[in-house]
Amino acid sequence: MIFAVFLDTSHDARTEQIEEAPELLQRDGRWFSLRGGPRQPQPTDRAWDPVAVYAPDELTEEEFQDLFELNRKHVPELNLKY
Q: How far is it, in rounded angstroms, from Cα 74 to Cα 12?
């Protein structure tokens, strides 16, 4: 399984387990594009599933980077070493 992180707003990130990580996924009527991964985190005190990061398809790369940084506080998987 893949741990998918859907970055929606600066304070709203949803997560779910998915079997595959396609380039585009639709959630709640919005299209999300794959922006990172799936990548396997380095081992820590627990085993991690590969992580894939999605963001709204209409965002530019710069907007995605800003959204990613704002969500790092709320989503531990965004702070793992890969």
A: 9
Q: Which structure tokens are listed for 38?
A: 């799936």
C-alpha 73/C-alpha 62 separation (Å) is 19
Sign of the CA dihedral 16, 20, 21, 23? negative
Q: Enter the DSSP assignment of 78.
A: G
Q: Closest by alpha carbon to 74, among 5, 28, 18?
A: 5
Distance CA 17, CA 52 (A): 10
What pLDDT digit, counting tens, does each position of 3-35 carry? Answer: 999 999 888 899 999 999 999 999 989 999 999
